Amino acid sequence: MRIIKFEKDIKLILNQLLLNQLIVCVKNASPNEACGLLFGEVKEIVHNGEYQYHFRGKKFSCIESNQKSPVAFLMKNLEELNRIFQEAFQKDNLRLISIFHSHPGGTYPSETDFTNMRFLDNCGNKAFKNQIWAIMNVRNMKLNGYILFNNEFMQIEVKIKNSKT
Ligand SMILES: [Zn+2]
Fold first, then answer.
1. CA of 71 to the centre of ligand 1 (A)
2. Centroid of ligand 1 to alpha carbon of 136 (angstroms)
3. How far is the CA of 40 from the centre of ligand 1 (A)?
4. Residue ranges making up the domain that contains 84
5. What is the pLDDT of residues 87-108, one digit of tens each?
6. How far is the CA of 30 from the centre of ligand 1 (A)?
7. What CATH number should be reported for the domain holding residue 81?
């Protein structure tokens, strides 16, 4: 297992309703891996003189798939990912902020996940750069986030808000 640092200045912020949609997506996909895309906005915020990046989720699309690993499918079909991305941008003016999937136990990225994170960051499409990889543990529905930022893998903070904003 790699040791990766925890970066508290990068946050994935979701409200409870959105989190519930993630949980439903995971339950419906069981026993297969669930996968989905989170759309929203990224805000740069100065907090006590330090820069913070807030990835605010606004919309979630659960990706239904017969494939055991829809994430692997998407990584191999970037046109498909791009199509979903363009649609969200044109319809709701939201950008892709996070790629979501589930693990049967734990939330730590697999070696394949690390490879895919690097692949997506280097694929040349700027829209896919700096995506948070949100991983949910099926056993307890705990959600963690990871990002490749400045060429370094980091775990980021996931914040769940009760309000609708
Ligand atoms: Zn994974």
1. 8
2. 9
3. 22
4. 5-161
5. 888 998 999 999 999 999 899 9
6. 15
7. 3.40.140.10
